[in-house]
Specification:
11 helices, Creatine Amidinohydrolase, Chain A, domain 1, five-stranded antiparallel β-sheet, alpha+beta, Creatine Amidinohydrolase, 2 domains
């Protein structure tokens, strides 16, 4: 794998530092495909055997139809495939005794180099009977399919395909069908060393775009609206060669009578609020690149005439948000469920007099990704199902939360709403590209000492 690490280092590290920080280097589409396919090969060789054996399932079958794709299958397709083709059936089989995993397809086409088709249509015209023949030949003890009541990402088999599979299997093998929830979630949530080498730069790109949007380059107080900034972000994301996995949002908190409301903040926010000096701005923003996602929330303060820095009362409020982050990440322990982490965090916040609300989620192949949910903003007592899933090493999480702080200067409570992407190695949490510990200013100070 040494040549892969060298490739990543050359393509990403040197490329970024050689550019203006607001114009990060991005790879050509051909280069992106090469990286994605190298990652996929490495993951199938290392991650997939581990999660299959951890789940004690020796055969995993993923079945999808074009335009009705299983969420997992897109992470197993080669870079040049945009979707499944016809009915695409992928199979991973663990022969045991430390033997290499076998991967193949029962499909009309090879699915890249890793899932070459084992179906000869001339010998067996029926695709489903060919699948049944393969299962009988391999004689697995447990056959996992993507069926789950808890996780949408692990519930990708359609009812039609489930019925067709059961109809074609002898009763002996029907009884061996089990839900492959733990394989699907384990496959999706586990991050490799190669991915993490690049993930830092992807998150850096997101941070740089946020900083550019929250600057005088984009915002003219008294003229620019929050919706103007939102659409600037959408255009900038596309201009730099990324995609947005959700529509960004920009909101304002200011010294007015309006109180903070979660529903308004997240779904009923006015689109045409004009930005004025003295406003505390908030952005929620995420990009997709190389099949990986970011999710970030940060703040900026619009300086009033004569101000050179953020007021002390807002700095103090921001520190409380950072402290809630610290409490949460200190409670990350391998094997703890999301609900256990949530409870421990909220108990400690209460003991320290902090008004924290936690809604942290995994990040990776999806924005709201596979793994344990650690609270929802409207479910601070725990999340059944998703919150019961345990924390595993080598997983990435969006540390998403807010801290309620009463400001005497404004006569109201505000929320410091933070979100930064982090990696858990089994022992410690580290922010993938650091975290904001200060509020940005608009405009940036040209003469800070004057």
């Amino acid at each position: 794998m040494r040549h892969i690490y060298i490739l990543f280092f050359l393509l990403f590290s040197f490329g970024l530092t050689a550019q203006n920080p607001y114009f990060p280097k991005t790879l050509s589409m051909k280069e992106r495909a090469e990286v994605i396919d190298q990652w996929l090969e490495e993951r199938v060789q290392t991650v997939l055997p581990e999660v299959m054996r951890r789940s004690e399932i020796d055969m995993w079958i993923i079945i999808a139809r074009e335009y009705n794709e299983d969420p997992v299958i897109k992470t197993l397709l080669p870079a040049t495939w945009q979707s499944a083709r016809r009915t695409t059936i992928l199979v991973a089989y663990d022969p045991g005794e430390s033997q290499a995993l076998e991967t193949f397809g029962i499909s009309r086409y090879n699915t890249g180099d890793l899932f070459k088709t084992a179906w000869n249509k001339e010998e067996q015209p029926d695709q489903w009977k060919a699948l049944a023949d393969m299962i009988i030949n391999k004689d697995p003890k447990k056959i996992g399919i993507n069926k789950s009541e808890t996780f949408a990402l692990a519930d990708g088999i359609s009812s039609t395909h489930h019925d067709m599979l059961m109809d074609v299997l002898p009763k002996k093998y029907q009884d061996r069908i089990v839900g492959a929830e733990n394989i699907a979630i384990g496959w999706l949530e586990t991050r490799t060393e190669s991915e993490m080498m690049v993930y830092q730069n992807i998150v850096r790109m997101a941070h740089q775009i946020i900083a550019e949007g929250f600057s005088e380059k984009v915002i003219q107080p008294g003229v620019t609206t929050t919706d103007d900034v939102v659409w600037w972000y959408r255009d900038r994301i596309r201009e730099l060669g990324f995609t947005a996995w959700f529509h960004p949002s920009v909101s304002i908190q200011r010294a007015d009578p309006e109180s903070f409301d979660h529903l308004q903040s997240f779904s009923e926010r006015p689109e045409q609020q004009v930005i004025y000096p003295g406003d505390l701005l908030h952005v929620d923003f995420g990009i997709t690149y190389l099949r990986l996602n970011t999710d970030t929330q940060q703040h900026a303060y619009v300086l009033k005439p004569g101000e050179k820095e953020v007021p002390d009362f807002l700095k103090a409020a921001f520190k409380k948000g950072n402290r809630v982050q610290d409490i949460l990440t200190a409670n990350f322990k391998t094997g703890r469920s999301g609900n256990e982490i949530l409870k421990a965090t909220l108990n400690q916040c209460e003991a320290e007099g902090l008004k924290g609300v936690i809604y942290t989620h995994p990040i990776g192949f999806h924005g709201h990704a596979a793994g344990p949910t650690i609270g929802l903003w409207d479910q601070q007592g725990g999340v059944p199902g998703k919150g019961d899933y345990p924390l595993y090493p080598n997983t990435a999480h969006s540390i998403e939360l807010n801290a309620g702080v009463y400001l005497e200067e404004w006569g109201k409570e505000i929320r410091i709403m933070l979100e930064e992407d982090a990696f858990f190695d089994g022992e410690n949490v580290r922010y993938i590209d650091g975290r904001a510990t200060e509020i940005m200013t608009i405009p940036r100070a040209l003469y800070p000492n004057e």
